[in-house]
Amino acid sequence: MVTERPRPTRRGEIAEILRTKAGGVTETRDEADKYTVVGAARRRTFANWLTPVAEHFVCHRNDIPDVDAETWTVSLTGRASGALSVADIESGFPTVAVAHTMECAGNGRGQHRPETGSVQWGFEAAATALWTGAPVSSILRASGVDPPNESGENDVGDESDERWLTAVGGDPSDDGDVFARSIPLAKAFDDCILAYEMNGEPLPQEHGFPVRLIVPGWYGVNNVKWVDELRVMDSMVVDGSLDRPGEHAFWQQVAYRIHPRGVDPEPNASVEAVDTWEQLEGAVDHPYTFDENVKSVIGTPDGETTVTPKHGAVEVRGVAWAGDDAVDRVEISTDGGRTWNDAELFGPAYAGAWRLFRYDWRAEPGRHVLLSRATDELGRRQPARISEPDEWRDALDDDAYPWNEGGYAANAYEPNAVEVDVRG
To answer: Alpha carbon of 328 to those of 48, 99, 288, 331: distances in Å?
Structure first.
């Protein structure tokens, strides 16, 4: 059984990451001393569309593997067959770039009261980068995998095609588990890539060098680093699914499931709904963290310095995202949530990546509490708060996000407020 024993080697990894990122990130509290976790050091990171590598959060549980890119291979197994070197991936398939807002599924865990889990993220575990690599669809077609129905009838999660792609990471574990995550094959064919570059530069070691899976719009845990196997299966990964020793299903069927306190979620071979919010509304017992819930963060003003209006106004700027869905609306409150006004969406509008927003605030002198809340194209709006643990069933109907034992997929807006002093 996977445990949360302290990992002393994380200290060296964190120190090296902090050194190479040169102040763009800061260490995040991990009560288990198990994870290597750093997040954006400044709120201003969330005022820009593209996140520099130096400001991009990092999260992983096992040691970074010792990689020789010349000998690293990705095995294609299950309904696929073959093996690819990094050179094969780089030169043997089309090269594409995708914009992806990566958010840790535990982002916001530290806003749960009582606290839950080990890594106490605020809102700093989200970032948008441009990832370059080979389309997973091209790789799978070349290995003999038929695509989902190309008529358009098989959407992601459609039960008419229940095949799944399981990505296995090559990071070593001292607990006997294998880091494996499954996504619907339809999603893999739609927009996923095996990436070897990040923001136009070779993939950094801590971000999955030499190759990682990128699943646009889906929580970071699905974006497996250091990929060494892609397995096409008739189900999600369960124990015994892989042709290797160790525990196979922990990271799919136990961890990263959303459930109330004291519950052990049952494993599933497949689920019909992969939209995380739809699952929360009752489509799946104890939802899986697949696509990202609608969320927003104000980047500026950042609350660190007193603000002086220019021509009577202060520009409020930030980012909003909604996983596989588009952001439809962002509202801004400058009085702690009593009144709201629409912000303007602007800048790049790529599927799977966040949108910029701005609002010209006619600011009066004094201290103000600024909030942002986003609504996606399906009309789902960020809730105000995280519920109490015993409010699980009624939380969504009470403008609250359900407190859950793992602290996953939280998107309440009140915890992300920024207090701003305006000079007269």
So the answer is: 19, 19, 24, 10
CA separation for the pair 217, 126 (Å, rounded)? 11
* Dihedral pair phi/psi, residue 276, rounded to 5°: -60, -40
How far apart CA 332 and CA 224 sit, in angstroms, is: 35
Residue 14: CB atoms within 10 A of its CB come to: 20
For residue range 24-76, list pLDDT tens digits in order: 999 999 999 999 999 999 999 999 999 999 999 999 999 999 999 999 999 99
Distance in angstroms (rounded) separating the CA atoms of residues 326 and 399: 21
> Is the link from the previous residue into 389 a cis peptide, with omega within 30 of 0?
no
Amino acid at 356: L
Backbone angles phi, psi at 140, to 5 degrees: -70, -40
The span from the CA of 344 to the CA of 416, in Å, is 19
- Structure confidence by residue, pLDDT tens digits, 86-102: 999 999 999 999 999 99
- Residue 222 is inside which H or E element, if any? none
CA 27, CA 168: separation in Å to the nearest integer? 27
Domains of the chain: 295-422 (2.60.40.650)
- Give CA–CA dist 356/361, Å, rounded: 16
Which string of DSSP letters, residue by residue, matches 116-146? Answer: -SSB---S-SEEEEEEEEEEHHHHHHHTTPP
Query: Which residue type occupies 214?
Result: I
How far is residue 157 from each of residues 216, 235, 252, 268, measured CA to CA in Å?
15, 12, 16, 14
